TrEMBL record:
<dbReference type="GO" id="GO:0004553">
    <property type="term" value="F:hydrolase activity, hydrolyzing O-glycosyl compounds"/>
</dbReference>
<keyword id="KW-0119">Carbohydrate metabolism</keyword>
<dbReference type="InterPro" id="IPR013320">
    <property type="entry name" value="ConA-like_dom_sf"/>
</dbReference>
<dbReference type="InterPro" id="IPR023296">
    <property type="entry name" value="Glyco_hydro_beta-prop_sf"/>
</dbReference>
<dbReference type="InterPro" id="IPR006710">
    <property type="entry name" value="Glyco_hydro_43"/>
</dbReference>
<feature type="domain" description="Beta-xylosidase C-terminal Concanavalin A-like">
    <location>
        <begin position="317"/>
        <end position="509"/>
    </location>
</feature>
<dbReference type="Pfam" id="PF17851">
    <property type="entry name" value="GH43_C2"/>
</dbReference>
<dbReference type="InterPro" id="IPR051795">
    <property type="entry name" value="Glycosyl_Hydrlase_43"/>
</dbReference>
<dbReference type="InterPro" id="IPR041542">
    <property type="entry name" value="GH43_C2"/>
</dbReference>
<keyword id="KW-0326">Glycosidase</keyword>
<comment type="similarity">
    <text>Belongs to the glycosyl hydrolase 43 family.</text>
</comment>
<protein>
    <submittedName>
        <fullName>Xylanase</fullName>
    </submittedName>
</protein>
<dbReference type="Pfam" id="PF04616">
    <property type="entry name" value="Glyco_hydro_43"/>
</dbReference>
<keyword id="KW-0858">Xylan degradation</keyword>
<dbReference type="GO" id="GO:0045493">
    <property type="term" value="P:xylan catabolic process"/>
</dbReference>
<keyword id="KW-0378">Hydrolase</keyword>
<keyword id="KW-0624">Polysaccharide degradation</keyword>
Length: 512
């Protein structure tokens, strides 16, 4: 297969997407020569991923800003349509700041002196339902601070509107009741205005905001001499003659070399919202021009920046000392006993507890599924599994998880003997079904494999000691409403009492 997806072409140019995975609703900030990016994480934990790059093309995942999603009790089970929506990342007064809107609880804020943390506990700045996509602005000239946010119609009955507030300099209080800055119902042809990013440039207040819907929308820019408006508007990026549907919602950044660039997403079904990088300039009237005269570029020269090694967020994991890498998240706030930590001298491998649950028949309901993004359009992923349980019904496996799901792994039979099983559930189904007949797994070991081809079509196979053998039919991965299909590792057992054993995962590998 070809080399892992990298955006850097090695000749001074790059190709889009620069992040070929589900880094939804990206925002970016520069501090010195470094660029940092965060993205929506919804109900997964840890939340608020933090990525680093020197050149906006080669990115690495350096951690997460949110250990648990708050209020913690509300995210004890998977909630892929709630939690952290469209965060904004800023640097002010020597600190990093992240603001986001939780559609069920309100606008929240955290901050830290260093990107690695420690980050402050979430502060609920504006409580209420329907407040989403929050972004702050500190006006360095006047010392004033502001906040803008959008609205979720599913919670408030309001959409297509941006609301602004004056804010205290410490980001902990709003100083007025808010006012409508932009009502896009009054702009012919505009709908679903959301995701605002607030800036000060050339004497104007600027709001970069997408509209038109995730799959088909465009990027708008609004400007006004006064924060309260009125605002002029212009479409500054759209699909045009390209095959990049709905190019919008992201962040503008000016590099240390003085160049302007714009990062945005493209919705690609089961693969999620992949991230593109566009050049940006200002026209004679002072408006931003993004991409190739307002259309996305597929390749372009790299930003002027010091050379950086070719890089992409990690996928592979040897689970050194029993710990998983930063690329993994739980589908909800994790249970304290979901995995067993090993000493630094232990054999590498991730040991998951076979947690007892009445929801073992439906992976979509489980908080203890460890997931990561699909890393490319076409790839193969493999992992070694040992099931250390003879409790009938105890099981563990490798999954593709979305509105529908499919997994292959090991299960203890009625007599406690481990066997290879392959199961799936359609989007409307409430319980999984067999995708292929079970077969013996000597020693309770198997090497599991999923081959993903164009269209997120997944072929499952396993090696239980006699070579890889295909299993079942091809499974077409599906996203959740806002979240891409995810790769997952899990271990469960039937409801009951008492410990029932563990599953050991080792040597997780993805090839392209």
């Amino acid at each position: 297969m070809n080399r892992p997806w990298t955006a850097d072409l090695g000749n001074g140019t790059y190709r889009n997407p620069v992040l070929n995975a589900d880094w939804s609703d990206p925002d970016v900030v520069r501090v010195g020569a470094d660029h940092y990016l965060t993205a929506s994480s919804f109900g997964r934990a840890p939340g608020l991923p933090l990525l680093h790059s020197r050149d906006l093309v080669n990115w690495t995942l350096v951690g997460h800003a949110l250990d648990r999603v708050e209020p913690a009790a509300d995210f004890a089970r998977p909630r892929h349509d709630a939690g952290v929506w469209a965060p904004s990342l800023r640097h002010h007064a020597g600190r990093f700041w992240i603001f986001w809107g939780d559609p069920d609880h309100g606008v929240q804020q955290i901050n830290a002196e260093h990107i690695e943390g420690p980050w402050s506990a979430p502060h609920l700045l504006k409580p209420g339902r329907g407040y989403i996509d929050a972004c702050p602005l500190w006006d360095e000239e006047t010392g004033e601070a502001y906040l803008v946010h959008a609205w979720a119609k599913s919670r408030s009955g309001i959409k297509n509107r941006l609301t602004g507030h004056r804010m205290s300099a410490d980001g902990r209080a709003l100083l007025d009741g808010g006012r409508t800055l932009i009502d896009a119902d009054r702009i012919p042809g505009w709908f679903t205005l959301e995701g605002p990013k607030l800036h000060r440039h050339d004497g104007y207040f600027w709001i970069f905001a997408p509209a038109g819907g995730v799959e088909t929308g465009w990027q708008g820019a609004f400007r006004s001499r006064d924060f309260s408006g009125p605002y002029e508007e212009r479409v500054v990026l759209s699909q045009g003659r390209t095959d990049v549907n709905g190019p919008h919602q992201g962040g503008w950044v000016r590099t240390a070399a003085g160049e302007d660039w714009f990062l945005h997403f493209q919705a690609r079904g089961a693969y999620g919202r992949v991230v593109h990088l566009q050049p940006m300039r200002w026209d004679a009237e002072g408006w931003p021009v993004i991409g190739d005269e307002g259309e996305p570029v597929s390749t372009h020269r790299k930003p002027a920046a010091p050379e950086q090694p070719v890089a992409a967020p990690a996928v592979d994991d040897d689970f050194p000392g029993g710990a998983h890498g930063k690329q993994w998240q739980w589908t909800a706030n994790p249970c304290a006993d979901a995995w067993t930590e090993q000493s630094e001298h232990a054999v590498d491998g991730l040991r998951l507890t076979c947690l007892r649950t009445s929801d073992a028949h439906d992976l979509r309901r489980l908080p203890n599924v460890l997931v990561q993004r699909m890393p490319a359009e076409e790839f193969t992923v493999e992992v070694d599994l040992e099931l250390h349980s003879d409790e009938p019904g105890a099981k563990a496996g490798l999954a593709v998880l979305g509105d529908a799901f499919c997994w292959i792994g090991l299960e203890a039979g009625a007599d406690g003997t481990p066997r290879l099983v392959h199961r799936y559930a359609e989007g409307a189904a409430e319980s999984e079904r067999d995708a292929a007949g079970a077969r013996a797994s000597p020693g309770g070991r198997a090497r599991l494999r999923i081959e993903v081809t164009a269209g997120a079509r997944c072929r499952f196979s396993a090696d239980t000691g006699d070579g890889f053998r295909p299993s079942g039919q091809v499974f077409a991965a599906t996203p959740w409403r806002w979240v891409a299909a995810l790769l997952g590792l899990f271990a469960t057992a039937p409801a009951g009492t008492g410990p029932v054993g563990t599953a050991l995962f080792t040597t997780f590998r993805a090839t392209h």
